[in-house]
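User: New here, any thoughts?
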Amino acid sequence: MPIVDFTDWMDEFTGSRYVWYVKRLSGNDTLANGTHQAGPYIPKEFLFSIFPALHRPETKNPDVYFQLYIDSHADHRRVRAVWYNNKLRGGTRNEARVTNFGGASSALLDPDSTGALTVFAFPIDEQGVTQACHVWVCRNEIEEDIAEDRIGMVDPGQWKIWTVDESSYADLVIQPEKPRKPCWLEAEEIPPEWIVKFPKGSEIIEKTLELRPDHRINPDIRLIKRRECEFEIFRSLEEAVELPRIKQGFDSVDEFIARAQTILQRRKSRSGRSLELHAKKIFIEEGLKEDSDFSHQPESDPGQKPDFLFPSEAAYKNPSFPENRLRMLAVKTTCKDRWRQILKEANRIHDKHLLTLQEGVSENQFREMTESGVQLVVPAPLVKKYPGPVQQYLKTFESFIGDIRMLSIQ
């Protein structure tokens, strides 16, 4: 049936009969990078659970076909889930993909969908098996916010399996994969005051620095490793605080919803500030001094507060300070639609830098950013996830810091 409102769609495909797989489309999922195996990556273990016929290791590249409805774009296809398993026979691949979308005419393969939050809703029968899937590719940041208000933040490179079944909620709060040492905190390693009152993001960042000092590592690698470490700390603390409460059960649906909303809002708040706070710490470690080499959360113009100004807020507000020596850095985990938000910040600075963790953009998106004066800053390990013609124009975090150092000696 035709559905045009995302809120109605979520209500329609939410319930004990549905399980969601949610991710942000990367350049390797869409056709942005020109890969010959385009199609959204879905963990094979998840596909095995809902398509048992796919788990046939004795067969080379086993597959199943099912009906897929992209309701956000009124598109219906009979698609193929395939397990590329030649690694079992001396090859290199051991991953699952969903294919047969019909090329760039599909919203799932459209290069301009790169970075879009996408929800796959699978109806599950009594045996836990599915025969179809309904999909919503978020068309704007408003729809992304609506989704994340319900299920929590989904960062680039991550995925989430979600259901409203209360009995499985504890497993969804803490994803079941094994924690990665050394950043996972056991109960005895967690400061007692953190159990009583959940710590601020800045406190978790300080703990991350304690566990991952890494001062000599390239800033790009340092940024990614610390952010991963911080997320592990957050998850271990969340498990220690929330899991006992969840296992106790709830006296009412309203009580359950209130607890869930508290958890989701805390996750959203952490993710929103995390990258920015890590960047600030690395600036300082790299010898940049706050208020003389950079200002954090300054007011550039009335009502406008960019994440960082270089060399300082005072320099920006000094009419005699040369504009060609001013820089601005915005920090956004994803940038597909949100990059436009920074255009009104720091009016004296035409070319604005944007640090992001998004795994690719389309060439059209990149061209629009460039024409608007936005320069992407991307950690070096993520550069390869961007289209080849775009990669040479990306600035790494390390090279951005080097440019700021050069400004101080001009």
Q: What stands out?
A: Residues 166-180 have pLDDT under 50 and may be disordered.
